[in-house]
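Why does this matter for the project? Reviewers at the last site visit asked to see concrete outputs rather than summary tables. In response, this paragraph embeds two records directly. Each consists of the residue sequence and, immediately after it, the corresponding structure tokens. Nothing has been edited or filtered.
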Amino acid sequence: MKVIGINLSATDEHATGIATIEDNKIRTFTVYKNPEILEIIERFDPEVVCIDAPLHLSANPYRAAEKEILAMGYNPEPQNMGDNKLKIKRAIEIRASTLHECEFIECHLDSVKKALNVSEPKQLTNVRMMNILKNQYEKDAVFAAVTAMFYKEESYEEFGDDEEGKTIIPKI
């Protein structure tokens, strides 16, 4: 199984963390520009890419996914808060620009950490880090990649709908 997790920044002026998982081994990267993100996706050839941003832009501050996540006790941000619209548009652009055939899913990182009952990647027992995590962006990318693993293993909860998009949270 090969998956990628992306902790996407709203713009290419700020760092984006990327984590790849293959055979339960994690490698992480910090990049800035969309071509760098796309190059890693193309080179790594994943089955699933998990981004910590909605892949559908809604006119509503909260989509069905966020409303359901709120009801479960998690705390997603509304789409119209801060730089969220920029981040969502960037996530949509990356998915549309990817030449590699793979599935894209979205996650909400705080909800992922809460569902797994961990706050740091070193607390994960089913994967092995292959490099030193350089920053928080890479640490959070690990959680997005782990979400993609749970998704491939069909051990997840899905929130939302086809129209506005679905958010994936690991289920243990």
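We now turn to the second protein, recorded in exactly the same manner.
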Amino acid sequence: MNPESSRILHSLQRNIVRGVITAGPLFITWLVFTFILGVLANAGLPLVKLLGMPFPADSWVNHAWLQYGLSVLLMIALFYAIGRVTSEVVGRQAFALFEASLERLPLVNKIYGSVRQLIETLASKNQAGQRVVLIDFPIAGQKSIGFLTHTIADAATGAPLAAVLVPQAINPSSAYLQFVPMENVTETDLTMEQAMSMLLTGGAVCPDVMCLSGHLPSSKNAEGSDPGGTCLVKDERPAAAGYNAPERAERTYMGGGHGYVPAPESGQ
């Protein structure tokens, strides 16, 4: 291959990769929103078509694009109405009766209860109920990001066990459910948003600091402050500023608002 052809192929490859990196997040976002809008439209479309039956078939009311938009708006309005009604005392009582009737239906109660618990866990603002942890998976010594969703007890020994959901990178919708002894679970200071960003980007987007506290099941000590731990901190201070530190330096997270300080040298 002559140098000119090699240069053209190299430029073509570089520009394609750059285009994928630039447009990839937008494309994935568009796919997600298209899927959500499609689900909403399919749910509300039967009612919209029913309302359009009195009008002639060639009427603008029966245009496909208009019915699609009306279906989405109808479902959004329905969700708003349900949320508004259930925020009132009477609405909560009525919804409680509806849930009680669902619990009497075999198979339906299992599916509904599991889905509701999952949605409440993901939507909860209480970080204690949706902690980001690390476990040895798939083999010992290899750490994987997981979400601690529940804790149970071993019937024989009474030792606590952690139910950890381990999503797959790039495709978090597929995951493994692992039951791990609590002492083998390492707690982190990552938020749900940071963990999902790391999974969706394959680790390309991740914080420079990750604190491994290892304190479970509580992330607070007896005094109510942060327990502290050991962190790996990416040191990006320029050499011109007088620093000659390695690229990554181990530091200690003091907790209680004291932040990060250099780890003491051995023998101190």
